[in-house]
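Slide 14.
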Amino acid sequence: MTPDSATASNQSPQLPLQIGLQDETTFDNFLAREALAPLLDSMSRPHCEPLQFLHGAAGEGKSHLLQALCHATDGAVYLPLAVLLESPPSDLFQDLESSSLLALDDLDVIAGRREWEEALFHLINRARAAQCPLWMAARRPANDLGLQLADLSSRLAGGVTWALSAADDSDKQAILQFRARRKGLVLSESVAHYVCSRESRALADLMETLDRLDRASLQLQRPLTVPLIREVMAW
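Slide 15: predicted structure.
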């Protein structure tokens, strides 16, 4: 997953910006590492807790998982706050508690913005009263976001927290091969290892490279081999 931020609504209330969920961000397109099994189990029952909070480094799958949850839930709303800061928060959050599920991404960006923090605090209260489950994600734990509003910190601390551990090199290679298979590509273990050894270790960069190689393979009608990858990537 990339730090992909697209405003989205799955049959949701009208929002200031409607871009849509990314097609590939589904649970079927997410390689579930063993360490994530409890989180994915909870996501299969998204209404079991009123507030759940994911945190982890960029590129570890937070945005993908939130969007996948919205793909799987009719009437869900996904809001990537990083691209919505120009919108008045009181307008953006208006009546969202009537949705079947809310997923707020990039929570880091509102830290220190009093108007946003207060608007989120009130949204959490309204969502709880309306029994609308609220899922949120940030790069850091809630108690390390630098929030100014103590009541908001308390609300976040009262929810269920999930830490997404960083994928190691073997995980990243497995994810690369998994996503290649989902695209209908044959990416051998040795070729996948070659790509991972040359490209940035960030999963977002690996996925962008895979997309580039996919296009080149289709255009040139050649399988993904080390010589082709060297040619395309100029490695």
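Speaker note: Residues 1-7 have pLDDT under 50 and may be disordered.
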